[in-house]
User: Fold these one by one.
Assistant:
Number 1:
Amino acid sequence: MRFVRRRLPAIQTRLDVRADASSAADPTPRLATPGLLYGVRGSAPTYAAELALRYKRLPYKRADLLAGRHAKTLRRKGFAGITVPALWLDDERLQTNRAIARGLERLLPKPALFPADPIARAEVEGAERLTDEQLQPATRRILIRAMARHPGSVRANPEIGRITLPRNRLLRALLARYAFRYYGITAEVVREDLASLPGMLDAIDAYIDAGVLNGPDLNAADFQIAPLVAVLLGIDDVATDLAGRPAAALVARVLQ
């Protein structure tokens, strides 16, 4: 398996993913080697892991694997699961953004990805669960079907990039068939996803209105949600309804 390693530049926006002034007294831990983040180009969850790493100012390199063949590579690298993002950091293997966020907090508590107040933290974790259990799988299915059926209706976010697909038409068709089967993608399932999407976005907007998301200090859920909403903004079927929502403003803050 060949993959490309690339070091991405630190975020240079008004995002305030940069550490706040209170973090100046907390030195970044010296790692024996930079973290190694395995992902797939164009993957919103992979980009979410990068946002958390940059926020913590931890050195890392990124290795992009081929979509559809990444599972074997991850197993060979010693990871228990087959999904990206997968982070090898300080001799610890972490998979899923929720696990990565908690691993980063253990290694470097400041700047914090979670509020110190238990009630506020529970609200952020609720937004994480919504993302991980509902928004992410629905977004994945909507995106994959749109790319397979109407590729011209999908525009990649420039920060996240476009998923690299084989140039050979037969290989693309085989990959699409595998993805449809693996993720349970059917026309009926995607119709249900599209029907339930407004409710998910309403919940995200409510979190924003309550200050759980897009508050003065960004948190783990902000970094996990914004890339997924950015992907949805690039899909014609849903972009129009999304454009005026508070969730779109979160994307503008985090990704631009």
Number 2:
Amino acid sequence: MEMSCTSPVDLSGKVALVTGGNGGIGLGMADALAQAGATVVVWGTNAGKNSDAEKTLRAHGVRVLTRKVDVSRENEVVGRHGRRGEGNGPIDAVFANAASVAAHRSPKMTTELFTASTPSMKTGSSGPSERRQNT
């Protein structure tokens, strides 16, 4: 997979975490971050895809860490998050790309069903309008 972009920013010295960064859109995002000079931390559930992503991203001459983490499991997220950038300093940006919501055939997703299907997510923030009012 060969991608290229012209980076309008220099992310040298920054650490970016990309969940699901071992394939598809997540790998595209991780690749762009690496091209911009960021250290990239990839969390994914497939060790083989993690390894392939690591090789691809290292071709840009940046530090890359891949970890087998299932973001649908709160204990794995909390356990990994506590390690910060795992020797690379604090994490400057997180790109939450991993799919962790269970699919349901129900035409109506209730709050209870959503909460039950996403055990690692916490509710409480409504959306952009609430954030604007609080700033």
Number 3:
Amino acid sequence: MKKLILFCLLSIFFLQEPAFSAFNFIDNGNGTVTDTRTNLVWLKNANPCGQKNWYDAGTYCASLANGQAGLTDGSTAGQWRLPNKEELEGIGTDPPAIWEGPGLPSVTWTRPGAPFTNVQEGPANYYWSGTTYPFPPYYPDYAWNVRMGNGDVSDDSKGPNDLYDVWAVREPITTTPTIIPAPVPKTGQTISYATGDDGALQKGVISPVPRFSDNNDGTVTDNLTGLIWLKNANPCGTKNWFDAVAYCNSLASGTAGLTDGSVAGAWRLPNVKELHSLIDYGRYNPALPAGHPFTGVQSDYYWSGTSSAASADDALSVAMNYGYTNGTPIKSDPSYFVWAVRGPVTSTPTNIELSALEAVPSNKQVILKWKTETETDNAGFNIWRAEGFQKVNDSVIPALGSSVEGSDYDFVDEWVLNGKRYFYLLEDIDSSGISTFHGPVKATPRWIYGAGK
């Protein structure tokens, strides 16, 4: 069950580039903000200490605790850290924008309406990640950083005079062991260069073993994301972006070594997040996980299907030698490689027609109410509550509806405090264990005159 939930979240949150929603972020009212897509808890103040060098930035984050930087969350020193490269890219842009080159307009931060304060977006405002840049000749003296103004990913020296912005993150604080994992993969970095850095903590989803399955039909399945990749990572040499898109769309069984029964239109040029999902930041030339079964991988830039946010004439590309994102390639440039993908392989979401979902506050409790019109293959429901979206029901709430009629449901959460705002997700589960999430909805429990409690 947990693996199926995790797979659904990885596919939805990490790969599909969901559109911004005000509910992506929950202001917890204690100096923290929860990203509902990843389950990570961020410092609300995105500029708590000015700019620091990499080592001082890591030390500062590790020292954060309740009573500092506007925090009233009960956190203690050692719970906060620098985000790794994948986490930092995910919080900043959705989807990633482009590097600001000469003559191109700057791109404003792509999370308008988010509850963070003091997000630094200027040309010099890159934020440190905890991930060391692992490639010669700069290894291990450089680290990755991300510019929040436009999503540019870069690297710079960890030296004492190289100062960049700092934004701390932590996992949710909870005593309940059943937690939806943050759907952000590990970066692959396993060597530590400072206490509390990415190599030491190795946060993120653990890759399955094996990571890739050779299907022996010209395709490879990524067991982490469910994506199906062309085994030959260089089927046609370099092309311009338009020809790359057309080539991928034309692929079918009988071409490029394929015997998988696929037809034209099934394959496509991957988006930038899908390309990034292949990168192992502990390896280079190519920066792919050890033991991968691909052939023809070029330690060079590959086109993504993601166009630039600043210019429709440009598209993003990803370097397979070390994992850089380049946002300035002109689509007419014929010097970029092509790697096709299809999928991901997913099960059909539970067919629940939900007509109502609300959280009703009461004295020291929140009543969750929902109504279905129809339920097909539904096994039941779970209720998840932030911070961290922990499951609050002890056992699955049984399904009462059918494919021809729905039902009314309610659940009382009594493990809450008056005056604190809570957010909830409703999970429905089909008979195969596949989950679909609805919400979130919110409520602030309070004493209600005349309620009798």
Number 4:
Amino acid sequence: MPPVARLPGTLSAGELAPKGDDSWFRQVVHGFIGAASVLQGFREGFAEALAVSPNQYLVLIAAAYLEGEERPTIADLAKYLGIAQPHVTTDAGRLVRAGLLRKEPHPSDRRSILIRVSPQGRSALEGVASLVRTVNDVLFADITMNEMAVLDTVTTRLVRNAIRARAELALALPRA
């Protein structure tokens, strides 16, 4: 039986595809996809524990972590999470109706709304904190601070580069 011809490379030759061989690159990308799927599964579990959607969990936990001297706005949450502002607005609205978040008028910008975790929301997050901590302790048990710093750098670059990559994909796809 003749050897099977290799598919064209999925990356131009360069540091990530020496001699045009993208096998290692593909392995790393598939690892990222697997890791993202695992993290998504945990997010779904934490959301289920709070009886909210996974995206609502993200908005709620982000609001809690961004609270400080100043309450975050919808725009702050969207930027922090890297998701579109209308999606954050929708999920925040649902969390407000569920009593987990509160909206307050911005003192100096009438167009902005400040988001605040309600006492009920804080209690819910405190109730799931032990589970989140246990999962994170196991999940990140043998990962060093330096490795996390590299991961932070890489994921930040991937998100930034994704904007340009999405534009390339959009140009290549037929318009509906």
